[in-house]
Specification:
By secondary structure, this protein is α+β, with helices and mostly antiparallel strands. The protein has eight helices and twelve strands. It is elongated and about 60 Å long.
Length: 253
């Protein structure tokens, strides 16, 4: 009986601790607001070889001729083999991974987007955005916006450095939080993407800003240490990339 009473007490203490708000310092909040995901795919170069890895393990390098998409998600890629010049087309259902070489124009667009938001000056380094030459796509079975029939797509993995437990994929049709103009083209505030595709275990969901609280326990609730330090009442959607990174780090201990 005493043992059961002790377990109940521990449960109540931990529940209370999860529910309590944690006050963070300004320095901590600045780190939490930093955007740790990769930037959205800007466009593929036709002059430098991309890499297609099929499910059978074969690797094909070639110049991208065409990308076909549905609801902005890639479902087919056509390349010209860099060695044989032979044209080849691969459906997403046969592709395991895809590395697309960024176009020069795409990089210019990324820089332009970076320069238009004051939030970027505070939370991102321009070099981190433009330094990676390839954009990584992974074959993923998902229901677009949690409404459509499940289908295999090649989705951009935007947390490749910390995707061991939670994989986050870019939603190319995501809206951004509102911003308001300052002097000139620079925007103050806003600029946070409102949705991603997220995979944990076997579950893939389209995660919207409005559903963040509802899915918080599913994403992070199996790590009591994390939940005590970052309870849902103390964080917001703008911290999402930090939270995924920190959860992964703390779960690896």
């Amino acid at each position: 009986m005493k043992f059961k009473t002790m377990l109940l007490a521990l449960f109540l203490v931990s529940t209370v601790s999860f529910a309590q708000k944690v006050k963070y310092t300004d320095a901590e909040e600045k780190v939490m607001e930093t955007y740790y995901f990769d930037a959205q795919f800007p466009g593929v170069s036709k002059k430098k070889a991309s890499v297609v890895i099929l499910k059978d393990g074969s690797i094909h390098k070639g110049y991208c001729e065409n990308l076909k998409s549905k609801k902005s998600q890639i479902y087919s890629i056509s390349i010209k083999d860099s060695a044989t010049k032979k044209p080849m087309t691969f459906d997403a259902e046969n592709v395991s991974e895809l590395y697309l070489y960024k176009s020069g124009f795409g990089k210019v667009m990324m820089v332009s987007k970076y320069m238009s938001s004051i939030r970027n000056y505070q939370t991102k380094k321009l070099g981190d955005i433009t330094s990676k030459e390839y954009v990584h796509f992974v074959n993923q079975t998902a229901s677009l916006k949690n409404k459509k029939e499940e289908q295999e797509f090649l989705m951009q993995l935007i947390n490749p450095e910390f995707d061991k437990i939670i994989s986050v994929y870019n939603d190319p049709r995501a809206h951004q939080t509102n911003s308001f103009a300052a002097i000139g083209p620079v925007q103050l505030g806003g600029g946070v993407l409102k949705s991603y595709y997220v995979k944990k275990g076997d579950k893939v969901l389209w995660l919207e800003k409005s559903d963040f609280d509802e899915n918080y326990d599913f994403l992070f609730g199996d790590n009591p240490e994390f939940m005590a330090k970052y309870p849902k009442k103390s964080v917001d959607w703008g911290y999402f990339s930090f939270l995924v990174m920190k959860y992964t780090e703390m779960s690896a201990k």
